[in-house]
Amino acid sequence: MRRLLLLLPMTWVLAGCPVDFQGWGGMKQQAKALPYRESPFFADDRAMRQPPPGTVPRDRRGKDRFFLTGKDTPDGGFVDAIPLTLTREIVESGRKSFDIYCAACHGILGDGDAQVARNMGLREPPSLLDLPPYPDGYYYEVISVGYGLMPAYAEKLTPEQRWAVVAYVRALQESQRARLEDVPPEARPLLLKEGTP
Ligand code: HEC
């Protein structure tokens, strides 16, 4: 019997003190601001705060506006060329992001041939290979803010990664337009062996 009595407080402790002990509800009930809730603490009654005007995230310091928005100032036109010195690493990282985030809809080759594309009834993701001659900044904008039924990727891809995707889309477009003469001579036999000319 005595053992049983000992067990009682132990089960209470192990169950994580479910009892509201003297009105103290545990950490669940502490005062805190929840997203989208009211807060009488601030003059505008909103718990969620805007960063002070002009705030720049630490990792964006030193980056210019063209780089972050893909747009030229002051007329707001799109940047013509990718504002990065392109290297093989950048294009390859663009390929990685493209394969993860874009290929499901636009196809591994960017030609719109993808399972998702075939099943998207409302608007099929288009081929990226025969679009009008858009400037590079336009692609950056579409990736950053989305386009029609296509979602935005600003949350998933940093500005650097978005430009890298633009570079890779350009590489895909180039690869589909290229003629055999555009390929370095040493690479031609392999191409001839792998594909139909
Ligand atoms: C969920 C499917 C989906 C994914 C993933 C997706 N797209 Fe799209 N994309 C679309 C659809 C659908 C459209 C056409 C939208 C419309 O016309 O309403 C489109 C349109 C576009 C356009 C053409 C815009 C124009 O002016 O015609 C570009 C460029 C583009 N996507 C690039 C990308 C890139 C780059 C990625 C990866 C970061 C990506 N998309 C990921 C579905 C997708």
Structural class: mainly alpha
Poorly predicted sequence stretches spanning 5 or more consecutive residues: none
The CATH superfamily of one domain is identified as Cytochrome c-like domain
Biggest beta sheet attributes: none
What is the helix content? 25-40%
CATH overall fold name of one domain: Cytochrome Bc1 Complex, Chain D, domain 2
Residue-averaged pLDDT, rounded?
86
> What is the rounded Rg?
27 Å
- Number of DSSP E strands: 0
CATH class of one domain: Mainly Alpha
The total of helices stands at 8
How far is it from the N-terminal to the C-terminal residue, by CA? 90 Å
Q: How much beta, percentage-wise?
A: under 5%
CATH architecture descriptor of one domain: Orthogonal Bundle
What are the distinct ligands in this entry?
Answer: heme C
In N-to-C order, the SSE pattern is HHHHHHHH
The global form is extended
